[in-house]
Every structure is written in C-alpha cells, then in structure tokens.
Write a structure and sequence with these properties.
Layout (H helix, E strand, L loop, with lengths): L1 E3 L6 E4 L5 E4 L3 H5 L2 H5 L2 E3 L5 E3 L37 E7 L6 E6 L5 E5 L5 E7 L10 H17 L4 H13 L3 H7 L1 H5 L3 H4 L9 E9 L2 E11 L1 H6 L1
Helix pairs in contact: 3-4, 4-5
C-alpha cells in the first residue's frame, strides 16, 4: 500500500511483510518537469524547516515525537528518551550532469551568511544544513585552547581516545577554517561549557535566501524556518 503523508509529504510504502519504507519529502519529484530535467541545474521549493524544542518534564509531543532514524532533521540529539531534537534542514537541488563546481550561499536578514561546497553528482541532490551560520575564524588563542583540550582528552585515555587522536591530527593539518571546524566537531558534540564558546551562530524563525551556483551560473531560492508548532499550541 502507498500513501503520501498529509503533513510531511513523505511517501509511505507498507508491505504485507510488516515493513514500512518512507521516502522523505517527495516534493522534488512532484515538481520535476521535462523543462527542469533539461535545464543545467535547478533549485527546488524547499520544505519548511523546524527549530524543535525539547519537551517539558512529563510532557508529550504527540505524533510529532514519533520519528524513525530518517530524516536526521527530527532525530534525537541524545540517547535519552526525551533527548532534544536536532536542528537541521534539507536543501534540495538538481544537476543535469556532473558539475565542475557547485556551492550554496545561505544568508539572512542580519547579514549573517554561510557558503558551503555541495555534492556535484548528476540528478537530485540534498544538502543537510544544521541551521547555523559560518562562525568567525578561530583566533590563535582559541586554537591553542582547542589543542590543549584535545591533548587533555587523549591523555585521559578511554574508548574515545583513538577518535580524539584522529580528529586532533586533522585539526593540526587543516588548511582552511572549514576543515578546522569539521575536525573539532567531536569536541562540540561532547557538550559542556567549553563547546559553547566555539559554536557557530544559530538561526531563528524566518525566511532565508539561497543561492545555488553551478559552474558560475546562479540559481536563487529560499527556505522558511519556523518555530516548534507545539509551542504555539501550548500558549
């Protein structure tokens, strides 16, 4: 049996073998036309992203709470049953053929922006945005603090020692701010006051401008980010 979810526009397939398969957000397939397929590239209309808030003590999120591992935009960010939900959005675009270069610029009303390098394969592609803008470049003092934190965790040993050592090596060898930030993500995931100092600015509800650039040609779009609708219902 097939059904399109009325709220999320996901294609849900139920089998007689007690299995369920979900194709997340089939909006791009619905928007696909011969003209789009023939074009060098295309930016689809994007599904509204949500800044999920953690449930209150003993509270229930109803049908909003129940989600599988996909999509990651509504996956628990921790292991506890009531762990907060991760904040992210999928940005979907199309490339007729493999591109030499593809980037995405995301900008907001306050002048904050982020430019990322995208997958360049032919077909429908998706980029997962963590709803954060680019962070300022790390100062020499901050880089020294991060190095000291890595060294402290490596000396402490434990089951994550090898992962910390590998990430520290990447941090030291990084040639760009993007690579450096990616290498230190393991420290941010660990949380705590240390991590808060180095996190990138988060976005709030609003409409954000998207510019897909493929081999020098620009394709505009937009993304709406909303607050958790369960909060509005509870007010």
């Amino acid at each position: 049996d097939l059904v399109i979810h009325p709220r999320d526009n996901d294609l849900v397939a139920g089998t007689h073998g007690r299995s369920i398969f979900i194709a997340d957000d089939i909006t791009p397939l619905q928007q696909l036309t011969p003209a789009i397929v023939a074009a060098p590239a295309h930016m689809f209309d994007q599904r509204v992203a949500t800044i999920w808030e953690n449930g209150s003590r003993g509270g229930q999120r109803g049908h909003f709470w129940y989600a599988g591992e996909n999509p990651p935009s509504v996956a628990p960010s921790g292991t506890l049953p009531r762990a907060g939900l991760s904040h992210s959005a999928f940005i979907t675009y199309y490339l007729k053929s493999p591109a030499s270069a593809a980037t995405l610029e995301i900008s907001g009303a306050r002048g904050l922006a982020r430019i990322v390098t995208l997958p360049r394969g032919a077909g429908i592609n998706r980029y997962r945005w963590d709803l954060r803008f680019a962070a300022p470049a790390l100062t020499d003092s901050q880089r020294q603090t991060i190095s000291q934190r890595f060294e402290q965790l490596i000396r402490a040993g434990g089951e994550d020692q090898a992962s910390y050592a590998e990430s520290y090596a990447k941090f030291q060898a990084a040639s760009s701010e993007e690579e450096r930030r990616a290498a230190m993500q393991i420290l941010l995931d660990a949380g705590g006051g240390f991590a808060n100092e180095f996190r990138s600015p988060t976005v709030g509800p609003g409409t954000y401008r998207l510019i897909l650039t493929v081999d020098g040609k620009r394709y505009p779009g937009s993304l709406v980010v909303r607050a958790d609708p369960m909060l509005a219902r509870g007010q």
